Amino acid sequence: MAENDALPNPLIPGFHPDPSVCFVDGWYYLATSSFEYLPGIPVFRSRDLREVELIGHVAVREGQLGVPGVPTGGGAWAPTIRHHDGRFHLVVPDMLGTGRGNVLFTADDPAGTWSDGVVMEALGIDPDIAWDEDRTCYVTMSGFMLDDETGELNHLGITQVTIDTETGKALSEPIRLWSGTGGMFPEAPHLYRRGEHWYLMIAEGGTERGHSVTIARGPSPSGPFSGAPHNPLVTARGTDRAVQNTGHGDLIEMADGSWAMVLLGTRPRSTTRAFAPMGRETFIVPVTWVDGWPYAEPVRLDDRHAPHEHVVDLGGAAPAGEQGFDPELIAVRRFPWEVADAAARPGALRLTGRGVGMEDLAPDFIGIRQSTEGLELECELDLRAGAGGLSLRFDEHSHLDIEAGGAEGTVRASMHTYSLAQSWEVLLPDAGTDGDATDGPLARLALRIVAEPFVVGALNMNASCDTLRAQVRGADGWIDIASVDGRFLSSDVCESFTGRVGGPYAREGVVDVLALRRRGQDIERAIR
Ligand code: 6LW
Description:
By secondary structure, this protein is an all-beta fold. The chain folds into 2 domains: 277 residues, Tachylectin-2, Chain A; 214 residues, Jelly Rolls, CATH 2.60.120.200. It is built from 1 helix and 37 strands. The strands form 7 sheets. Strands 24, 26, 27, 28, 29, 30, 31, 32, 33, 34, 35, 36 and 37 form a 13-stranded antiparallel sheet that branches. A hairpin with a 2-residue loop joins strand 22 and strand 23.
């Protein structure tokens, strides 16, 4: 990667933490975490690690992940994607509650179909998978041990087992490996072979402001490893950089022999470096080798502020994702095609409410990630036979909803933040927007949530994030219903490991989604 070429950061905007990457036949393939959302574990491809395209998901069928019963923050954590013996392998922790544990999926084509998955006998999180020249398969993880007496899990640092990839059975007892330089939560291990050395790269310091990437090397996949003299390889802790929480990386040798690291980071909005609306996103930095050690540059934001627009394909006419759904559509603990019916009305997605709202663990909601700092998320709904609206959610405790329908003659916005809720109401606008006025406003009601970021500057002493406006479209344009403090929908406040996701939902009856689009733009900032 040419040194002065500005890298496109974030490489994958919107909540996409824990990136892993491999290079096969001229394509880079990336996978990221998806937690309680389905389909699970998005897979991307790229020719150059600049333009990245979402090509599918690993978990598109029931039973591949135990997500339907996981608590918030559980589900598909950090994956590792590798290519070995002509097949793609992806290992991922399916965490908490009904999660299956560490699962190994395989596929011939990374766009799918992926296997049902084999549960590995490997107790820990963030599994890595690597092979030596004898074809022994090493699974390296952030290990746990079950205390038989107390039933508690104890952290063991970085551990490793060898496994049988067909059965998932461990072929050896866990051994403990180099576990970093003393930071908390040694995790995210990845093994690499380069020249005469094996490298063990990990994350430590926790996934918040203390996050970092550190590295060690040794003569075999099991070490013994000794740490690099210049650790940490990457960290933003104690800095005023625009990208914070940098850590959890994966190294890749590029087509031209140069190296890069993909890693997670956040774009917090306040001068206190807190409140990231999109949670943890995927970034990329160039890596150079000196005396057998890799050196990475700090993560910098590029200066692209191009407007972005994504019109969700509701009709299945454009390149179809899983089951003909736009691949960007996700749902909470269910597949979008379990929540929405694409066949009921041409060009629309039909949601049927079960009498619950966005506070539910599996709401009748489909959404897309917020991917730029400035956002306009807009939908048009037919609410004549039901009640529902548009929501921007972080988790079931934290969401901004705009709702209409039923017998109500109003449009109500409500902001929910744990035990606090506040709501505002306006009368339904007189006429439908684009529709036939005789059908009334509920035939095609346009709702919009706008995120207006505060500008972060060196001398800008605000502890803010953005303002969220809830709007409904009337005959003369958008009408403000409420404007609320976006900090309550940010990573420092909410429970999940995710970021903001917005889209339509049904509370009761039938709600037809006639349009859903996201527009946005990142903002200028004094600090890169
Ligand atoms: C992941 C751990 C982490 O498993 O957060 O940043 C956890 N790192 O490595 C969930 O993403």
